[in-house]
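Problem 12. The chain below contains 75 residues. Write out its predicted structure in C-alpha cell notation.
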Amino acid sequence: MDSKNPERGPLLIIGGEQDHAVPPAITHASYRIQSKNPGTAEEITIPNRGHSLTIDSGWRAVADEALAFVQRFVE
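Solution.
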C-alpha cells in the first residue's frame, strides 16, 4: 500500500496480541508508517488472539471492531 498517497481511504490495522506470524511489533510498525499519511490510520490489537483472529471462534468481536470503524466513515 502506498503510504504517501493522499487519496488513501481510512485504514484500520488489526492485530492479535498473541500473533507469532505477524507479531504486534510488525503491525505497530505498519501503523506508524501509515499514520504519517494525511488520511485516517488506526491500530487495534485484539487481546489474547493469535494470527487466525478472523477465523477463530472469537471472529465476531474482530468483525464488530472493523464494522464500527467503517461505520464512522459512511455517509
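Discussion. The mean pLDDT is 94. Students who got a different answer should revisit the alignment rule from Section 12.3.
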